[in-house]
Amino acid sequence: MLASLEGISTRTLSQRLKMLEGAGVVTRECSSTSPQRTEYDLTQKGRALLPLVEDLRRFGEDWLPRHPAGESPDKTATLGR
User: By three-state DSSP, how is residue 7 classified?
Assistant: First the structure.
């Protein structure tokens, strides 16, 4: 999972997850296996955010440039559809 989070440092990810846990959006569970695994689950409050996150994703697909920040845009890329 961590490998799929390209562009975010492990320190930043850890800070954000702690913030979400403190806000009651996720719960954290550490396993007693070796190596230790930490799993996060959405709480009821976190699941209530899913429709909002989906709306933001759709907005981004419709209105934001297709190239990552700092990279040259593709000549065919446009804002919106």
Answer: coil
- Exposure of 29 in the CB half-sphere (CA atoms within 13 A): 7
81 in a structural domain: no
Kindly report, residue by residue over 14-73, the tens digit of the pLDDT. Answer: 999 999 999 999 999 999 999 999 999 999 999 999 999 999 999 999 999 887 666 655
Is pTM beyond 0.85? Reply is no
Burial of 30 (C-beta count, 10 Å sphere; 0-12/13-18/19+): exposed
Q: Total domain count for the chain?
A: 1
Range of the domain at 16: 11-63
The CATH number linked to 47 is 1.10.10.10
